[in-house]
Specification:
Layout lengths: L2 H20 L2 E3 L9 E8 L4 E7 L6 E2 L4 E6 L2 E6 L3 E7 L8 E14 L2 E16 L3 E6 L2 E4 L5 E4 L7 E6 L6 E5 L4 H11 L4 H8 L8 H7 L6
Parallel strand pairs: 1-12
Antiparallel strand pairs: 2-3, 2-7, 4-11, 5-6, 7-8, 8-9, 9-10, 10-13, 11-12, 13-14
Helix pairs in contact: 2-3
């Protein structure tokens, strides 16, 4: 499979997964430590399905930077490298309807060096926040946990907020575009730059017809074919 075809396939898969997360995701500034186990299903990149529990006495938080997932199965505890996992679902006992989907994936951080834009690439467990036909928005914080009703909780710091990344169809991975603590004026400028191939949508965001944090509308309306 060629690289472009592979990127389009990944984009399509992520678009499907996003719908399992959006309806029940809570974003709060809160650190939760506890002894709760979460029901977990891991689908590996070689098509294995591993079911069991994660969490326990140390902490029920899943750090977004976890390079290894320790899961308690009927056959015993297994440790699986995050990079070998296609995606992972978490659910609170009694709330299977709020199953949460996370993907361990690259994200790029743009920076400027000697007047030239460059990127640093990091891997994190990310939630799939919004998806349209041509645009996906992912998010991550320091760690994840599940509320008693099964809703997803993102733990983050006051200084960094929740990181928002965007991926257009054909991009190799999401790129950081802003944070939950970013100003609306900053986000409007970011959208103007990143979605410049859809001037109609950019104008709506610039004119404040669409709020800079209205990710649902932005992903739905973004169409790079518009003139």
């Amino acid at each position: 499979m060629k690289k472009r075809e592979a990127n389009l396939f990944v984009f399509a898969v992520l678009t499907i997964f996003v719908m399992a997360v959006v309806s029940s995701c809570q974003i709060v500034e809160l650190v939760i430590n506890g002894t709760t186990y979460y029901e977990t299903e891991i689908t590996t990149k070689d098509n294995r399905l591993i079911a069991g529990l994660i969490g326990g006495q140390r902490s029920s938080n899943l750090p977004s930077g976890s390079k290894t997932i320790s899961i308690k199965t009927e056959e015993g505890r297994q440790k699986i490298k995050s990079e070998q996992i296609e995606y992972m679902t978490l659910a609170r006992k009694g709330h299977p309807e709020k199953k949460q989907t996370l993907v361990y994936m690259d994200s790029k951080y743009p920076y400027t060096k000697k007047g030239e834009q460059k990127f640093r690439t990091f891997k994190h467990w990310q939630i799939l926040k919004n998806a349209g036909d041509h645009l996906i928005i992912t998010a991550y914080g320091h760690s994840y946990s599940l509320a008693k009703d099964g809703a997803l909780i993102i733990t983050y710091s006051r200084d960094e907020g929740i990181q928002y990344c965007v991926q257009r169809q054909g991009d190799d991975c999401p790129i950081l575009i802003g944070r939950s603590i970013s100003s609306r004026s900053h986000m409007r400028k970011q959208w103007q730059e990143y979605l410049a191939d859809d001037p109609v949508l950019c104008q709506k965001i610039k004119d404040k017809e669409i709020d800079a944090f209205d990710f649902t509308t932005i992903t739905e309306q973004y169409n790079p074919a518009k003139k």
